[in-house]
Amino acid sequence: QKEVEQNSGPLSVPEGAIASLNCTYSDRVSQSFFWYRQYSGKSPELIMSIYSNGDKEDGRFTAQLNKASQYVSLLIRDSQPSDSATYLCAVSSSGNTPLVFGKGTRLSVIA
Amino acid sequence: DAMVIQNPRYQVTQFGKPVTLSCSQTLNHNVMYWYQQKSSQAPKLLFHYYDKDFNNEADTPDNFQSRRPNTSFCFLDIRSPGLGDAAMYLCATSRGIQGQGGAFFGQGTRLTVV
Question: Are B98 and A98 an interchain contact pair (Cβ–Cβ within 8 Å)?
Answer without folding.
Answer: yes
